[in-house]
Amino acid sequence: MGNPSRAVPILVALVLSGCVLQPLPSATPTLTASPTTPSPSPSAPPTAAPSRSPSSTPDFAAVPEFMASDVVATTIDGLRVRQRPGLASNVVAGLLPLGAELQVIMGPIPTDELGWYLVTDADPADPDFGEGWIAAGFEPDAWLAATGETAGESPYRASFAFTGDAENGPVEIGRGDHAIRWVAVDPERVSCQFAVSLDEGRGAPIPAIRATIGDDLVPGTLQPGSFDALGVRGQVFVVVASDCAWTLVIQRVPEPEPSDEP
Predict the structure, then answer these.
(1) Residue 228, SS3?
(2) Are 191 and 180 contacting, i.e. CB atoms less than 8 angstroms apart?
(3) 188 and 177 Cβ atoms separated by less than 8 Å
(4) d(Cα 198, Cα 213) in Å, to the nearest integer?
(5) How many whole angstroms separate alpha carbon 161 and alpha carbon 2?
(6) Does residue 200 register a pLDDT over 80?
(7) Nearest CA to 70 among 181, 146, 157, 128?
C-alpha cells in the first residue's frame, strides 16, 4: 500500500476492464431441545482449526500486503478466483488447493468486507486460469501468504493501492509500450473521484487518468497508445488525487507477434 504524500489535480478518461472468493461455508450447529429435567452433559469439543470467516467489522489494515510480481500461495483449501472483486462475481477458477501458487498483479481493493488481489496462475497444477481476483483474508490467519519469490520476466513494473490521495514511486518506465490498469470504488458506494498524474520531476505532473466512480466498482485501462502519447519515460512518480479506494498497476505491454501474412 502506498504512503500518502501530495494530491494533484488530473485529466483523461479510460476504458473499462476488470475482474475475482467465497469463503468456505462453516457448518452451523443444530440446537436440540433440552429435556424437562436437564441433566449435565459434556460441552462440545473445540473446533480443530480457527474460523477463517472475516469478522463483522473487519480491519482492512490486516489484509496482507503484496506487490506486483510477488508469488503467493494459498493457506487453505477451496479458494475461488473470480472475474471481478466480490462474492457475487462469476468464478474463473475453483476450488484452489492448499499451497496453490499465484502471481500478484495488483491490489488489494475492498469489496464485500474483504481485500481482493488481481492474480495470474503461477502453478503448473490444475486448475488452470489466466487471471482473476481472489480474496486474501486477514492477518494473522490470512488465506494468502508470501512465498518469498518474485516472478521472473514479469511485465508488471509496479502496483500501488490506497484509499485517498497518494504519491508513489519512482517507477522506471523504459522504452516500449506500457499501460496502466486500475480499479476504484467508493467505500460508501455513493460517488467518488479518481485521477492519476505522472511526474517526471521536470515540471508539472502530466495528467493521465480522470474518472468519476458511481455506486459500483469500476475498472479501467490507460491503453498503450494513450500512455505513449504522454511521452513519459525514465524515473516516474505516480500521483493519485482521489477520495476512492483504488489500486493500479503499470505494466509493460509486449510487442505484437510478427505476422506471416504478406
Answers:
(1) helix
(2) no
(3) no
(4) 20
(5) 6
(6) yes
(7) 146
Do residues 64 and 146 make contact, with C-beta atoms less than 8 angstroms apart?
Answer: yes
Secondary structure letter of residue 256 according to DSSP: P
Bridge partner residues of 96 (DSSP): 79
DSSP result, 112-150 = TTEEEEEEEE--SSSSP-SEEEEE---TTS-SEEEEEEE
The backbone torsions φ and ψ at residue 226, rounded to the nearest 5 degrees and listed phi first, read: -70, -40
Shortest CA distance to 18 belongs to which of 107, 92, 85, 88? 85
Above 50 in pLDDT, residue 158?
Answer: yes
CA separation for the pair 210, 79 (Å, rounded): 34
Residue with cell 520531476: 201
Whether 21 shows a pLDDT value over 50: the answer reads no
Enumerate residues 6+ apart whose C-beta is below 8 A from 100.
Answer: 73, 74, 79, 123, 125
H-only helix segments in the chain:
224-230
Is 179:224 a contact under the CB 8 Å cutoff? yes
The confidence band for 211, taking pLDDT boundaries of 50, 70 and 90, is very high
Give residue 2's pLDDT: 44
Average the pLDDT over 113-118 and give the result: 97
The average pLDDT across 218-235 equals: 94
All domains of the chain, ordered by start, with CATH?
Answer: 60-150 (2.30.30.40), 156-252 (2.60.120.230)
Is the pLDDT score of 178 beyond 60? Answer: yes
CA pair distance 242, 2, nearest whole angstrom: 13
SS3 content of the chain, % helix, strand, coil (to 5): 5, 40, 55
Length of the chain: 262
- 166-173, strands of its sheet edge to edge: 166-173, 234-242, 192-199, 206-213
